[in-house]
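Hey forum,

I'm writing up a methods section and want to include a predicted complex as supplementary material. The small molecule is adenosine-5'-triphosphate. I've pasted the protein sequence and the SMILES. Can someone with a working setup run it? I'll credit the forum in the acknowledgements.
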Amino acid sequence: MTLPSSPIPKNTEVIMSLTRILVADDEESMRWVLSKALKRKGFTVDLANDGRQALALIQENSYDLAILDIKMPGMTGLDLLERIREMKSDLLVVIMTAEASMKNAVEAMKRGAYDYITKPFDLDVIDAIVEKVARARQIAGQVSLLKQELKEHYQVEKNIIGNSAAMQSIYKTIGKVADSDITILIQGESGTGKEMVARAVHFNSGRLGKPFVAINCAAIPRDLLESELFGSEKGAYTGATERKQGKFEQANQGTIFLDEIGDMPLDLQAKILRVLQEHEVTRVGGAHSIPVDVRVVAATNQELQERVRQKEFREDLYYRLNVVPITLAPLRERLDDVPVLVHYFLDRICTELSIPPKQISEDALTLLGSHTWPGNVRELENTIKRAVILSNDPMLTAIDFESLQQTTVDTEICSQDTSLEAIVDKKLRSCFTGIEKLDKSDIHSKVLQQVERPLIRFILEKTKWNQVKAADILGINRNTLRKKIHELDIELKRG
Ligand SMILES: Nc1ncnc2c1ncn2[C@@H]1O[C@H](COP(=O)(O)OP(=O)(O)OP(=O)(O)O)[C@@H](O)[C@H]1O
Ligand SMILES: [Mg+2]
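Reply by user p_vandermeer:
Happy to help. Structure tokens for the complex are below, copy them as they are.
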């Protein structure tokens, strides 16, 4: 047996996908030779002199390849192979046998060895095996990456549902901007699909196959948020026992999704701005900046411009993020998407629950199509799920959605000839007969107030004066409702 003269393998790039190898043999000379040969190629090599020691090392560490002698005291290579298949099914194993008997070879392969070699062997044989294993691992890695990408791509295409003009325009924007590195700000009420859009941007971009890292800025306390985003050095704060990569570093070459960006504290907003401008991050407690190549997609369900006005959100960051704004309309403004969403969720939920497909009646669809959906698509999805689970019939009808009726827009007053608009029109005409006699001051707001006041009072009464519910039904936020109650001088009653 001779050590090969050149320590550099033929296909360096492929071979480098292997790093750590375990060699188990009870013969010391064999361990020594293999270890020396493999270390010269740059691998980390661990040695075991019997099966049990090898098993312990495999349990503790992560290896790319194990080269095992078939005959070892205590536990044979074949028994060990069996245990490995149970424990670490992706660890590749090469068995060394002292005799080229077909029995051994067949047995080794049957038990899941990747290959076997017979002793004595030339180290060229080891070279060839290492290269073969490396190539197999690389291909396996690529296949699993491709499978993952395909799965995610497929899911994204299948999942964003909606044919309304509003959604069509969203699809167009995604198509136009996905491939560039432009920063995107997605706005929309809770449950309108902001995260879905962020994923669609990533999976339709050249960054497909690279990480998509999401972080919810509202869910993490201020003190932790900074190190979550930018990472931290060991000892940067109490409890920082190890150096930690931040989300920006993790998302390198991919996309970071900054969800609920409106809740980010002002001082961190300044740091985000720096990343966007300089393309580098500094870990908490770190002295150097680290370059990052990350596409930023941010989302919020707050009125970000309003927060800018109130000095709670940096104006410069707002403009830097808002290069391409995508605003998702609330579901109540695209009710024509309801039927297609309902059918989609119905099919998907029945499949997920492994139950026969269910149908939905026309009256149920009409009811769902006139609900105001304060929780948007998420609420619709949950409503369908609840009905599917609770109903034993193959056909869902309006009765299965009874709990929705409270917040459904009254279809009576919205019917063609008695629509609210028609009533207001008639009333205005009778009130304002001689236009020249009208007091011209502020008619617009006076009329709006007269419509708004009874509307808000009516919804408050219906919700037993629960302002959270009323704001939801009205589709305005709670602060706006409070402001309006004050401005319109609405007298509050207890529920
Ligand atoms: N157009 C759509 N087609 C299919 N499913 C949708 C659509 N929009 C939203 N959904 C579903 O609704 C749920 C909420 O979507 P998503 O998490 O993207 O909303 P969001 O706007 O990020 O909400 P939040 O502000 O509460 O985080 C998810 O389960 C998602 O699958
Ligand atoms: Mg979200």
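Some notes you might quote in the supplement: The chain is about 45% helix and 10% strand. The two ends are 91 Å apart (CA to CA).
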